[in-house]
Fold this sequence. Notes:
- By secondary structure, the protein is mainly alpha-helical.
- The chain is built from 22 helices and no strands.
- The protein has helices spanning 9-17, 39-56, 60-72, 79-109, 116-131, 135-147, 154-173, 177-193, 199-220, 223-243, 247-268, 271-290, 294-315, 325-329, 332-337, 340-361, 364-381, 387-410, 414-434, 437-458, 461-480, 484-505.
- The longest helix is centred in the first third of the chain and has 31 residues, at 79-109.
- It is globular and about 90 Å long.
- The termini are far apart.
Amino acid sequence: MPGSFVVRGIALVLAIALMTLASPGHAQQRPGWLRSYPAADVQRLEGRIDFLSRRDRVSRNSLMTIARSVGLSGSARTLDNIIVAIDDLSKQAGALRTRIETLEKEVLAAKQEPARDLALEALGRALKAIDAGDFDLANREFLTVENLRWSQSEIGLKAWSEAVDARINLARLQYRFDDATALAIRKGQSAARQQAQLGDIEWDAYANAGYSQVLKASATGDIRALYEADRIFDVDLGRLLRSHSTAGRVYQRNLLRGEVKGNIAHRTGSIAVYEESNGLLRLALDYSVAEKCSECFSRVYSHLLSNVSSMIYISRDVRHVEIIRPFIANDNLLLTTLPHYELVSLNYSYSSLFSMIAEIRRDAGAFDKAIFYAQRSMDQAATASDDWSRDSFILSKFQIADIYRQRGEYLNDPAYSAKARDALLELLPQYRRLGRKREEGMVQKRLGAVYYIIAVRGNDCGALRASIAAVGEAMRLMSQADDPQEYSGLFTMQKRNQGLLPRLCGTP
């Protein structure tokens, strides 16, 4: 079953946060497509590739080929975008390699299979080509395996299916999403022409075809790919469902369509499409509860929660929270079944939701809940020592500081403004040590906003000058991080600060 493809804001921020400092050893062999990037950025990319190579058991050559595909696709504006993209692609490459190694062992054990020896030779060459970063050669070797005269035995069918899937995955790793979709559809059509035992292969092939279009939309921003994915999930999976319906298939189709419609709604801002998505996700949620499938429940619920947060943000109508209120009130199932990283993300999402509700209602109780869940996210992150947990801890700490800022501003509470200032000042050196210019810039931006409120509320010239300094530093950092949108907003903040100088400080 394809993996989850709705990318939540927290996942993106945490992915950026996982970037490590680079070792400069590979700079001399810099490929041509990297020559336009600053040396420090290239070193950071190479350092990340070294880390991912160890983490996912993928060769550096493979990861460089993937990074090149992302870089030349036009979808990544900066090297940071490429680093974020290859983090997930590296996991996919590692999973592909594991699947092929497993298939090798199974083919080796199939001593009666006529195609056995030729398949083993081609699979061996394919793995060597992948490790060398030559995905085109690997694709040709998998095509060889696909076209062998396999028997109708279980291993023969599996080898044929896995060879096609390997070609689909290689196409995705090279950002050739339409090719991946076409391969998956042809696989489904081929399975349909064969005997009934290939029914599951046909179903998975069409699910894979739709998923490739979702990946295309995520990588390129092309919303038409999402509509095509929805059509595949609706029409093609619907056709297969009518011929052979199971509760698991109904669940998967509802989930996939719910996720895609949520993605379309995120792009279009349509409350009506969000409601369609919610209806499908609630059906999938019912299945998860009935089957006592905690993994299913977690995946569906995360998308439902994301939808509700977006609907409240767009409409400013907090009544949308009612669809998930029963689960918030009784989260024992989630707390006792979710793995560590999902618990961290869930509590962070709850904190963001209640922070938004508090901002809309100007509600102290909602602010208290937002702080409670952010603290719970931070406490959960502190139970592990890996990079992701460390960075989640810092991010949750920033969330708490920002909630203090909001509460101080919206409820006119100077004590919380002071708490926000102190918390943000404490965060600055942590981001500085990690070399995260954009994140450090966001802290400076929030610090500028807090100082501005303190200055206005207390007619405090010193606080206004501190705001000017913080916003100026944020502008410098955002310029270095190549984020023109944030820079533009900061420029407006600074004009406001400068306009207040004569009144509070007596100087222009």
